[in-house]
């Protein structure tokens, strides 16, 4: 099974060291080869599972309640400024 | 001192209410801290081990897998990407335990993000099996199982996505229950595979598990997947009466590759049930052999989505970088261990354009076939009996280099997660080398009562759970 590790790592936003790339590429190829045993089954007329117990959507009333989540969340952030999460520059000029 | 630590949860509650909980807390503090350097079951002990002796639990200590949020206490999922992270709220199960009067004692080691069957992928060192320190305790809730087995805590919470409560329970000779999907709120459980994850207890006895199930189960408006199904009193189910109970032995679970001593032990358990008046039937779950393949498509897909949130922006680790894009890549490279990377990559791949139908959709279709196997089986029988794990505890490092060999150690536990049904592991014997063997019981959705009744009857008849590891 061909596995383009560079492409997938890019999609997953993961830097990989060269030695990791080789090992992970090999592992993932082997896992996908194992997974191919599913192809032996004819599933043309089978519904895919979307919920194991066929539960209906659960809704709650949309009510405004007091919350201190925002200041608490900011307290544990790596970097903040005022009421915002601060991140490095997105675009270089 | 060891006397107090070897109490069951139920016995300890009785003593705490009569004589106060402090002597119990002191005994556990002493024993757990003395043993932890050897076993590494705990990542940290609670800094505020004050006893809320007022509630139904009398202040007795319970330990928590390190992927369940406790307000103000560090939680890491045994990952460097969350090291030093302090959640600002309690998981619903934590609120319930606090309200019932439990003392939160320690936070348990685990496989990183619950990705593993051995506790070896923890970023903070492997946990060891109290029965043989050269062997794994199982995983991912390895610290929870090892701490209960070694009398370092009275009971513990774990989480189970593909067997992460039951397999370590089997390898350490404790009871481990995975409730029906939706039975226990997952609010505050750091997500792995959202269509599989369930929180459940690891305990010394079935009765202890039933006491905790009474506290943990129930609908929670904060978790949209939590079920409105009524919760019975599970301790009422423990009658020891299994007369007429129909127990199925699935022929696909007794296959080549299973340790003959384990097969023998589970077949002997079936004879015990027969003696007690239950009816044993051989049944078939024909799609069993596809379970691991389905799981390693669907669960990794969900895991890669769930781990997308670890990007260095809002909490946890942030690697210094010149721009935002580089920060994502660097933070995730430094923060995730090898197995986490493997699963994130695999999950990303099976969800990526052009592969979704071949892998993810195919997996969800085969999942339907596996669920239908169980639906048919439960028309014939009330409970299904099988081994929990194909082998006893393996040596640390033995399977670390071969991911597929490691994944196959969950072959008997994964199907219950794929179908959402309740399942548990109960100690049923020992190998000739003295390693624990666990048997698995599975039941219809929301019928934990029948499952617990069958487990309790076997446990009380045989007394296997009374044997403890020697640790000095």
Order of helix and strand elements from N to C terminus of chain B: HHHEEHEHEHEEHEHEHHHHEHHEEH
Unreliable segments of 5+ consecutive residues of chain B: none
**Gap from first CA to last CA of chain A:** 42 Å
Helix fraction of chain B, binned, reads 25-40%
Shape of chain A: flat
Mean pLDDT of chain B: 95
Strand residue percentage of chain A: under 5%
Name of the CATH architecture of the domain at 2-242 and 422-466 in chain B:
Alpha-Beta Complex
| CATH top level class name of the domain at 5-40 in chain A | Mainly Alpha
Radius of gyration of chain A, in Å, reads: 23 Å
CATH topology name of the domain at 2-242 and 422-466 in chain B: Amidase signature (AS) enzymes
Would you mind describing this structure in some detail?
The complex is a heterodimer of chains A (93) and B (472). Chain A has a domain of 36 residues: Orthogonal Bundle (Histone, subunit A). In chain A, 34% of the residues lie in helices and 4% in strands. Chain A has a two-stranded antiparallel sheet with strand order 1-2. In chain A, β1 and β2 form a beta hairpin. Chain B is globular. The two termini of chain B are 14 Å apart. In chain B, α5 runs parallel beside α6, α9 packs across α11 and α9 packs across α12. Chain B has a domain of 286 residues: Amidase signature (AS) domain (Amidase signature (AS) enzymes), CATH 3.90.1300. Chains A and B meet through α1, α2 and α3 of A and α9, α10, α11, α12 and α13 of B.
